[in-house]
Amino acid sequence: MDYKVCFIQGDWLMPTVWDKFERHFKACGYACCVLSLPAPGEQGWYRVLHGKDARSSPLGRLVDFYAEQIAAFPAPPILIGHAMGGLIVQLLLDRGLGMAGIAIAPRPPQCVFPGIRSLLQILTTRVERIEGMRFLRLTPAQFSRLGHPASRQTTDPLYERFVGRVPQKLMTAVALGVGSRLFFNHERGPLLLISGSDDRMIASSVVLANYLYQRRSLAPTDFISLPGYGHLLITQPGWEQVADQIIEWLQRQLGCF
């Protein structure tokens, strides 16, 4: 059986962050797509977060947006997300969507404390007002210090290529756990949570606590902490090993050898 892999972008980062992973998975025989916003940049965020259902939280509207795309596929896909994208993977699986999910350095759902560093990072990030919306964007120094255990010479080119803006009210909702409650009502697909031991944005201990909470589900749930990796496991040197570990886990769960 051919499996489709859907990559979901996270906070701060643009969809181009998945380019290497997408090529790697395609080379291994997977059909791939990146689930991004309906329009690039700030306009895409505006269209999602100012939808028809004003009663739901910003995170809830974003998850609804991805759920509509996934429900249109002929077969349930494999979901892979990073940071907030990893939280969205967990919420989609909790709705019964997706064959399996991989959450890389994921932000935690409600009932799991996100950690002081993560909260401070959201509260202290530069605010930019664009077309009536308030956006947060990491500075190059923040990106180098929090997102990647490397020198500024290494991270500055990555900053220009990958870092975008994210709505302040969305990140506030994520930090407070608004719209991220798990219900465990469905027999969800298998879930793998991955952390980097040197992650200065979402600590490995937070991902471990997330894993222990997710074990309330009867579905297979696994946790991997990778030594020497920072928050950007999907782009830093050695990203191929992260991708290969995911593929090996998928082979064990889905039997696609």
Automatic annotation (TrEMBL):
One of its GO terms (molecular function) is hydrolase activity. InterPro entries: AB_hydrolase_1, AB_hydrolase_fold. Keywords: Hydrolase. It comes from the Bacteria. The keyword Hydrolase applies. Gene3D superfamilies: alpha/beta hydrolase. This is Alpha/beta fold hydrolase.
